[in-house]
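Tutorial, part two.
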Amino acid sequence: MVFAFALSAALCLGFGFVLQQNAAQRAPMSDFLSFRLLLDLVRMPRWLAGLGLMVCGMALGAVALGSGEISLVEPLLATNLLFAMALSRWQTKQPLGLTGWGGLWLLAGGVTAFIVAGRPQGGHSVTDPLRHWLIVGVMIGGALVLAAVSKRLRMSAEAATLAVAAGLLYGVQDALTRVSGERWTHGGPAALVVSWQPYAVLALGVTGLVLVQSAFETAPLRMSLPALTAAQPLAGIICGVGFLGDRLRTSPGALAWQAAGLAAIVVGIVLIGRHPAMPSGMTEERVRDLQPR
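Running the prediction step on this input gives:
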């Protein structure tokens, strides 16, 4: 069931991201990195459809996180890029070719290698608050720094940097979603209402949404979605092992296969992102609009 929920979440997320980018490229650049951007986007039916799919994906991902280890669920969620690729290929009618197939096999094989070699298992959450806050602080602080630095970069690098920042926030959000689920299980709604994690999940989700839509607004999908897809599982796995008590096999052979699996995931994501089937969404008029920035 964990696999079913996680892959269903990946499908919704992948389709949702494509629809959101199709709409975000038409938003005014004056709303870049502003919450006003969301107010403009809610007027676009295509973006609302993409947001609905994204919310469904996040809900399915929360169910998967409630039943399985974050170190298991995160690599499965990374397959959202496969579904985004499928929808984009249908839109653009581009054949997969060597790059597309290579990226697909590397991503799928990397996820399989990491899960089989690591055999993620749940454990007891780390009770040391310093370790908990240190990991969360580094992730959120790193995301804020990347968002600030992105304004000084060229547009393609800006979009990728914003996507990495959003991926870090979403990874922490996934970890706190699991904590919220555990509080609900052990204490019911009362325990959830008085804890800070659900409110942090909401704040991280909204902030990450602004970063992602700003990345979608400034550059083609191939410049942002691969970076987002690579950063989120890595951040989630760090949180899972760091303070949620997830355990991975640590024999030399298992660690080697886990490292190879993660490397294959990243390389596969990059190859898929560079494939022509990923829509550029950049018309000549849009390019002229972006020139002053």
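Residues 281-293 have pLDDT under 50 and may be disordered. In part three we will examine how such features are distributed along the chain.
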